[in-house]
Amino acid sequence: MDYVFEGLMDGTTDTGVPAAAELIALAEAAIARDTDRLERARTAVVKRLGPDAMIDAAAVIAGFDGITRIADATGIPLEPPRAADTVDLRARLAIDRFTLAKW
């Protein structure tokens, strides 16, 4: 499948992911630890995709958050081959600006 990753960054472009708005709302509420938003987001994902998909999405959010925090805390850099493979994507999405924001 082809996805439009710019939609993750600009919030307006259709990403091509079914129920993207609901999944993004779930991720944002979970990271913000906003229990009211989180309850609404979980309900919306269950309504659109079912309870199993909500659990899968919550597990991915939790795993990604934890792995990212570990990498950031230990200073693990992006591996050179992965950095080379993602130059265009990172530039298109302006992802590298997040690294600069940490410092």
Write a structural description.
With 103 residues, the protein is mostly helical. The protein has a domain at 6-77. The protein contains 7 helices and no strands. It has helices at 6-10, 20-32, 35-49, 51-74, 80-85, 87-93, 96-102. The termini are far apart. The mean pLDDT is 87.
From the spread of the alpha carbons, the general shape counts as globular
H-E string: HHHHHHH
Return Rg in Å: 15 Å
Ranges with pLDDT <50 over ≥5 residues? none
Number of strands: 0
Distance between the termini: 36 Å
Task: Tell me which oligomeric state these chains represent.
Answer: single chain
**Beta-strand level of the residues, as a percent range?**
under 5%
Q: Summarize the main sheet.
A: none
The whole-number mean of residue pLDDT values reads 87
SSE inventory with pairings:
Blueprint: H1 6-10, H2 20-32, H3 35-49, H4 51-74, H5 80-85, H6 87-93, H7 96-102
Q: In a nutshell, what does this entry contain?
A:
Helices cover 75% and strands 0% of the residues. The chain is built from 7 helices and no strands.
Summarize this structure as a short list of keywords or feature phrases:
7 helices, single chain, 103 residues, globular, mainly alpha, 0% strand
